[in-house]
Amino acid sequence: MTKSVSRLMFAVMTFAFVAFNTAPTSAADDLTEMAGKVLNGYIQATLDGPDTLAPWLAPEFQIMRSNGAGYDRTGYLTRSVGTIKAAPDFSHEEIVATRSGDILVTRYMLKINEVIEGKPIAKRAPRLTVFRLIGGAWKVVAHSNFGAGH
Q1: Are 87 and 112 in contact (CB under 8 A)?
Q2: Domains of the chain with CATH codes
Q3: How far is C-alpha 124 from the geometric centre of its chain's CA atoms?
Q4: pLDDT tens, position by position, for the chain (150 residues)?
Q5: Burial 96-133 (b: 16+ CB within 10 A, else e)
Q6: Residue 40, SS3?
Q7: pLDDT at 32
């Protein structure tokens, strides 16, 4: 094998390695950033109350609370949303987001000080939220709260 062929093969292999190992990271970073923005909107709407939250919920919405209570869209908006009392500050970390078409699945750790139905829950608790793109806007299809001690 000549030096020029060897250099060409090395250049092609290097390009392929860089292309295949950096492009997904960039796409994953973009997806994580987008998911963080969507989560911020949903969490803030939840804190703001039923009127602000209603447009975020898909018709098929369901929630499962850490205490085992579950609600559909109507039940959540009429019985559950007003029971959350929280400081206006929150953050999320360790976001893992996957997307297939109009479905966005997020799992993350939510850090927030809140009391639900008179009981304090974990200040840092795992969450799973599933969104569906409807009419150009992300709507929450399902949400699970895995907070300890509730």
Answers
A1: yes
A2: 3-145 (3.10.450.50)
A3: 15
A4: 555 544 544 444 444 444 444 445 577 799 999 999 999 999 889 888 899 999 999 999 999 988 888 999 999 998 866 555 555 567 777 899 999 999 999 999 988 776 666 776 657 889 999 999 999 999 999 999 887 644
A5: ebeeeeeebbbbbebebebebeeeebbeebbbebbbbe
A6: helix
A7: 95
Residue showing tokens 């799992």: 107
CB 105 within 8 A of CB 130: yes
Residues composing the chain:
150
Q: Per DSSP, what are the bridge partners of residue 51?
A: none
Distance from C-alpha of 110 to C-alpha of 52, rounded to nearest angstrom: 20
**CB of 16 closer than 8 Å to CB of 85:** no
User: In this structure, what DSSP letter does residue 45 have?
Assistant: H
Of 94, 132, 98, nearest in space to 110 by CA: 94
- Residue whose C-alpha is closest to residue 57's, from 76, 82, 31: 76
Which is it for the CA torsion 38, 40, 41, 43, positive or negative?
A: positive
